[in-house]
Every structure is written in C-alpha cells, then in structure tokens.
Amino acid sequence: VGLILVFTPAICSTFLCVILFPALGRDDTFMVIGPSEPIVAMLGADAVLPCHVSPAMSVENMELRWFRSQFSEAVYVYQDGMEQVAEQLVDFKGQAELVKDYITEGRVGVRIYSFRASDNGMYKCFFKKDSDFEEASLELKVIGLGSGPLILMVGPEGGGIRVICTGKGWFPQPEVQWKDERGEEIPSISEDETQDDDGLFQMEASLIVTDSTKGKVSCSMKNPFLGEEQVETISIPEPFFPRTSPWKAAFGVTLPILGTLLGAVLFLVWRERQEKKRAWQAEKEKEKESKAKESLKAELDWRKANLYAAAVSLAPDTAHPNLILSQSRRQVSCIENVPQNCDIPMYQGQGSSETICSVLGQEHFTTGRHYWEVEVNMGTEGRPGTRWAVGVCSDTVKRQGWFIEKPEKNFWVVACNEGKIEALTSKSESLSLKQHPHRIGVFLDWEAGDLSFYNMIDGSHIYSFTEITFCGNLCPYFSLQGPGTSVTIC
Asked: Major place of localization (predicted)?
C-alpha cells in the first residue's frame, strides 16, 4: 500500500509551521535581565545582586547560579529547590544567601555579606529550565573611603619645605590632589601607592612648598567612582622657609657672561678666585647638610624674632594656688606636695579624674600673627600623674572647679599626658611623633583662624587647629600637673 502526499501552498505552509518549527509559540521561553547600572557597596557592608526573568514567571524549579568570570567560580547555586554548596567558592560559603521573596514572579537576588575589596568586579546570573538557559551580566563596585589624608611637615628641602600627604584603607585607588589657599592645583613631586593583604590602597604624595606666600596648602583624596573626597589643610609659617642665597643666583648669571667677555689672562685670574670660592662654598654646604636641623632652628630664631615674636609672660592673678611662678613671670611649676585637704579642681577626661592647675599669659590677642616658644619638663618621661598642656584660650573661659580643655569650650590645646602626646579636639586625637617635643613653637594666625604647634627640636609639625572662628580676647594658656613638671617661656 502506498501513500502519496500532494502539497498545495497552503498545506505546505501549515506543515512547516507545525512540523519543522515546533519551538515557535512555546510559552516557556524567557530572558534573564540584570541591573543596568553598577551596584555600589561599601567595604564591610551587605548588598544584593538582583536578576529577573521576562516575561514574569516562577523560577522555583529552575537552576539559578551566580558566578564570576568562569562558570565554575560559583558565588551561589540554587537547584532542586535548595542551596547547593558543593560548587560554591570557599570565600562565599556562609557569606551568601538567596533573596526569594518574589521567586514566583521571577525576581530573585543573592545577598552577599561583608564585602571585601576582592569582591569588586563583574558577575553573571544564570537561569536554566530544562534545556533552555539564559544569563545576564552585572557589575559590583566596592567602595572603601579610607582614613586620612594626614599631612606631615618633613623639613627643609630644595629651597622650601617638604610636606607629605598619607592615607590608607582606600578602594579603589583614590585620586590625590594638592591645592594652595586660592584653590589652584599643585602637582605632586612624587606619588606612591601600595596595597595591603586585603587589597586596600595606601597612598603617599610629596610636595615641596617653596613660596612663603603660599604657606597654607591642602591635600585631598577622592574616590573616583562616587566623587566623595576628604581634605586636610596645613599652614606653614613664613619663618620655616629657608632664605635663598643671593650669591648662588648672582653666580649662576654672571659666570657665563664673565667666561665670554674676559680675556685669557683675566680668565686665569678669575678661575683661581672662583676655585677658592667653590672650595669655601663646598665646605659651607657640607656643614649645612650635616647640621640641617640646627640651621633651620637658627633661621627660625632669627626670622620669628623680627616678624611675629610675641613677648609672652605669665599673669600671677590667673594662676592656680598649686602653681609656683618665677620672679621673671616666665616659668611656672607645680608645688611638690599638695595638702590632702586642699580644694583642687578636678578634670574628668578619658574616663579618669585629673587635677588641672592652669595659668594664663599676660598678653591678650585680638588680631594679627603671633609666635612664642615654651620649654616643657616632666622630670621622668611618662611618670604616672604627670601632665602638661599648652595653647590658647578665650579670656572668658571657666577654669574653676571641673572644666574641659576642648575647642567647644574655647580651648585650643596640645597636651602630654603621662608621656602620650595628644591634640585635645572634640574626640582627643593621639599624635604619633618621631621625637618627643621638649621645646614647642606656637604660631597663632588670627585672621586665617589657624593655630599651629611645632617641635622646635627638629622643626617638625605637631598639629594644627584650622578654620577657627575666634571671638573676644585670646590668651596664651598653660596647665601642668605632677611633681617635677614645669613650663618655661623662652
């Protein structure tokens, strides 16, 4: 028996649609869609990597997978209605879970806990139903706003003052920028970055400030993705800038001219004289290099005395009864043995009670720039119960009974508590210094709202209170505690 099929155009069309193309018209086809914008997450925070299907349908019985660049690098796997941990990367075990509140509508996501810098990058979500599968890409931006910037004044170099800006704990690598007080950008002379074991960036940028009229510079570190930045500013008083040698400049200009104009005989005479000068200059330069710190200190002593030096003395009527003032009113020290029944004002700071015995300077400042130096002595360094503090305060502050040396109470002070140096800000910042300060320079710039402290032993910067709005009269402020502790105005 034979069967003969005769195809008409209409029959052929129907045959092709039903027999040759059975997939057309199926209701189980779908697309996987991820977020169109990068997902932003802070270091240590949690976030969800979402994906959904279109058209909307339940994905409860599908295989769902989130992975990195390779299919085998599974962040999370969901199959047969439960989590599958066998294929999951070790770093994500116990750190990822499925968000399935809307799984019947085809909207799911993976929540990842405590993001690390290594989690930054591209991800893919993969959905499979029977033999059909689709995937979508999504990008995760991990952001770490680190600490800093912190500006340190290193010392004289290249006819100016070298300052460095440091910061750590940033991700991704931040943009570092120096600016002067007019907001104009200043290029760094060097910029180094390193990454720690967690992948976080540590930055260090250097700058040499050569213009004493631009003594205030700021360093900013900005996250390149969010655009958020942190800024720190430092003021460098003019006395810290080394004087340039006019002899060097004149020599550099006149040497080519003399070499062209002088005759052979005069040139020999000139060369002999120049050799003597060079030998003398080389000896002087060698001496300067070996004693750079001493030279800077001598320069400061001369410049500050002519520019901003303030003749500070102590006001006896402001002194605590437990303090002894010298006849010159330039030195104050503690009474060795304080009677047990003496009425002593108490200072409660950092969870403990301490005796504060203070005295003010005789001078009142309401404008201008002023500079003075003090020598501090604590006997045995770090001895329990010893403390000193220097700075400025308003002449209206409360200094009887219990009081706090903080900016919100109109005190701007740097202190040494049992050998630990700290700036008494709102949260009391502990300062890490290369050398313990025994001679401290205090520079007050009223109009700029700046109060800076310097270690005059090595010329380094200790701390600066900036952008202060002063009001009323300011007085030099000194407080000390413990036997053997004294402060001397230089």
From this structure: membrane
SS3 for 189? coil
Q: Which two tokens stand for residue 237?
A: 């008083």
Sheet bearing 216-222, strands edge to edge: 185-186, 175-180, 216-222, 229-235
Alpha-carbon gap, residue 235 to 229, rounded angstroms: 20
Contact between residue 474 and residue 365 where contact means Cβ atoms under 8 Å apart: yes
pLDDT digits (tens, 9 = 90+) for 410-426: 999 999 988 889 999 98
- Rounded to whole angstroms, the Cα distance separating 210 from 137 reads 51
Q: What architecture (CATH level 2) is domain 147-240?
A: Sandwich (2.60)
Both structure tokens of 390: 């220097």
DSSP string, 298-341: HHHHHHHHHHTB----B-GGGS-TTEEE-TTSSEEEE-SS--TT
Higher pLDDT, 368 or 242: 368
Candidates 2.60.120.920, 3.30.870.10, 2.60.120.560, 2.20.25.530; CATH matching 316-489? 2.60.120.920
In the chain, the percentage of residues whose pLDDT exceeds 70 is 81
Domain pair 31-143 / 147-240, same fold: yes
Domain ranges of the chain: 31-143, 147-240, 246-306, 316-489
Which residue(s) pair with 314 in the sheet?
Answer: 361
Task: Give residue 22's pLDDT band: very low, low, confident or very high (50, 70, 90).
Answer: very low
Q: Which residue has the tokens 């006019």?
A: 246
Please give, one letter per residue, the 3-state secondary structure of 445-485: ECCCCEEEEEECCCCEEEEEECCCCCCCCEEEEEEEECCCC
Q: What is the pLDDT of residue 483?
A: 82
Which tokens belong to 389? 């503090």
Which H or E run includes 251? Answer: helix 246-261
Q: Is this structure's pTM higher than 0.85?
A: no
CATH class given for the domain over 31-143: mainly beta
Burial of 1 (0-12, 13-18, 19+ CB in 10 A): exposed
pLDDT at residue 307, as a whole number: 75
